[in-house]
Amino acid sequence: MRKPQTPPKLRTLLDEVAKKDRLLAIVAPPLGLERPGEYLHWDKLRRKSPPGDLTHREWWAAIKFQRLPTLKKVPMQDKAGKPFWYTQADTVSQALHQIDFRTGGQIAIPHPVTDPEMRDRYIVRSLMEEAITSSQLEDAAVTREDAKEMIRSGRKPTDEHEKMILNNYFTMQQIRRQKEKMLTLELVLDLHRLVTKGTMKNAVDEGRLRPPGRKIDVGDMYGQLFHDPPPAEELEERMRAMCDFANGKTPKEFMHPVVRAIILHFWLAYDHPFVDGNGRTARALFYWCMLHNKYWLCEFISISQIILKAPAKYGRAFLHTETDENDLTYFLFHQLDVILRAIEQLCEYVERKTERADVLEREMRTVRFLNHRQRAIVGHALRHARAVYTIDSHRLSHAVVYQTARTDLLDLVDRGILDSWKEGREWHFKPAKDIEAKLQVDE
Length: 443
Fold this sequence. Notes:
With 443 residues, this protein is mainly alpha-helical. It has 20 helices and seven strands.
């Protein structure tokens, strides 16, 4: 990834246009400085054709001048003590409205997600997707199929990459349990400890801030430096300020909860308070903040799954903010789009699953004696003749207790739908060879 070019400062540009008697062109520029939904960084703008008779530098000055009236400072500072800020652009307001509408209430939410019998399946799915893709963003070399098999079967991870994924899964579960609590430095450290357990070069770094004198650079494998985080000596104070922000103690004026969650994500990533695991912890804090503020649908979405499709855009959103005088709007734009796409992806997934369920219901008219969990495993077995199930995998997939999972599977064995055998002390189950015939009963 190429580091974006740092934009010229507005004050410098205003001095330039004043000398050329072009201030009016900046204060009252032609229409069309930016297209709707666009928030240009200098690095992109300098490659486009300016509107009217403006030069690229004048165009940038006019855009920056127009952004000033909606500027809002946040209680976060860079290493030099300069504040971060964002602008309340129309596109930001529109996206926030959509997220409010689609994640906080019931009207726009797919019915299966709100169905008490089905919602646990969707929660488990989202926890797995976020755990897997958040780890893959940090170069965990594990396929989704292998990762899901590990989580569902309850087997122990075989390497550091699988440990990373399993840690993320447990962390997401912990966030659901801790969502009502206020954020503290201790909770941040606990989450980091969960994220990194058994994966750090030095185990003492699990759940602790970078020690004094420990410098860390954020760059690529070619030695290109992208970010130089604040010194370790400042981290405890910065983290406590971050927690005050997360808990709504600062700033005094209203800040939209989704904006707060996104900035919290950026804040931890910017401070990079840990030797490793910063990205995963930052995304975990985003989820904590959203759930803490009652955006309960976020239990069902995976932002990392969206980010993983275009990780360079994620990185550039950080760099655009840092290079353009701490303007967080770039990161806001990116993350709001990610959230909306994650919601849309959930809706599409639920729609597909609902359509499949409808087909299966028609095909399984004669097996109404099965509960919804048994119908799910039978539906899977019909499509995967070599699938193997365990009581633990069924329990984890449906978030039920061991005895319920055991009863479900043994009942299917009794009906001849599944075959069973024991390996050691563990029961295993697979589709019966004549499963289709077992499911067909004369009408």
